[in-house]
């Protein structure tokens, strides 16, 4: 990306380099995010109150571990392809042009690409301080630290 693009505060989203570290999860969970590519659009512009990612999911890959947040809201908008939204209450196919939202404390959720083609979506989430993410299907917990980074532990509090 050129300096001129950065100064203009406008870029072609697909030209933003992917995140260098595919996942913040510790192993064995990080490797489960293979096939997911995130482009951190909000960070590029110095946004601090909310994050915006352009995310591409390969066939068979998932967006995240099944999770919910205690203080953060999330919103996804499918731009291309087809994804399956998995929640505590069932599954919904999301096609291009569809969106879904997850208020703080709501249903646990994640997306999976069960199609034969890549799917791309925009995800927006706030950056509420002291957020906790819970993962009902896995032995992992996450707490947003004062520095804005996630701290991961097992559910009993022991570190990874």
Label the overall shape.
globular
Write the element-wise H/E pattern from the N-terminal end onward: HEHEEEEEEEEEEE
Strand element count:
12
- Structural class by secondary-structure content: mainly beta
> Which runs of at least 5 residues are low in confidence (pLDDT < 50)?
1-6
Distance between the termini: 36 Å
Largest sheet report: 5 strands, antiparallel
DSSP strand (E) fraction? 35-45%
Strand order of the main beta sheet, please?
1-2-9-4-7
Brief descriptors of the model:
mainly beta; five-stranded antiparallel sheet; 2 helices; disordered N terminus
Secondary structure elements and pairings:
Blueprint: H1 3-8, E1 36-40, H2 41-44, E2 50-57, E3 68-69, E4 74-80, E5 82-87, E6 90-95, E7 99-102, E8 109-112, E9 119-126, E10 132-134, E11 141-144, E12 150-153
Antiparallel strand pairs: 1-2, 2-9, 3-10, 4-7, 4-9, 5-6, 5-8, 10-11, 11-12
Provide a compact summary of the structure.
The protein is 6% helix and 38% strand.
Molecular structure report:
The chain has 160 residues and is mainly β. The protein is built from two helices and twelve strands. The chain has helices at 3-8, 41-44; strands at residues 36-40, 50-57, 68-69, 74-80, 82-87, 90-95, 99-102, 109-112, 119-126, 132-134, 141-144, 150-153. The strands form three sheets. The chain has a five-stranded antiparallel β-sheet. A hairpin with a 2-residue loop joins strand 5 (82-87) and strand 6 (90-95). It is globular. 19% of the residues are buried. Mean pLDDT is 93; it is low at 1-6.
